[in-house]
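Handoff note, outgoing to incoming analyst
You'll be picking up this chain. Sequence as last confirmed:
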Amino acid sequence: MRIAVVDDQELFRNLISSEITSLFGRNAVQCFLYSDGNEILRAMALGLEYDAVFLDIEMKDIDGMQAAAEIRQISKTVPIVFLTSHTEMAIQGYEVSAFRFLAKPIDRQKLKETLTDLEKHIYKGINITLHVESRDIIVPVSTILYVESANNEVRFVTEQQPINVRMKLSEAQRILSEADCDFYKVHRCYIVNMKHITKFSSTEIHTSNGQIIPVSRSAALGFRTKMFEYLKQNGR
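Most recent structure output, in case you need it:
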């Protein structure tokens, strides 16, 4: 998950970022810090995208409400969480479809609840259904680290557990492609979620669970091109 934190107080920016990273885990979230509304607007105008924006209302130059209105011109759907000492401004926030208001000083439990709700909101609908034996399992694609083929099965390795399904890797690739997510077939036996890649070269990939996956010679050039596009698009 990519979260932007916009606040003109450096101490508060760092505090929010630290809390978010602590609650989600370093491998699960990236925080992008901005000191005013103009900074994030410039970044978004260049094509950077975020899964959520935490936005202080009371800032110099351009306040949070004005920044939110301009953010809405770029993205109609990105969730905006307002940070404010004046909760009476909540009514005004509905004009820009605010996801939530958090009162300063931030209560850690309230922040945790907001992050949990954000995750559910962001990833709702982005699921695949896997038929395992006599039952169907719904799997959020964001939790899939990689997919590997072995014998007559495909193993979906998720953050929670591996799920073995009787299908071909080509069928798994089709399902993931229809989900419109960032997966790439790097080897005849492996499809990798680029979100969970922590390190890569022309010959191998390291995933967020420590697994090392080979990259075939035939897939190397296409993978590196796609990976650099992904990194540029997501500001990593």
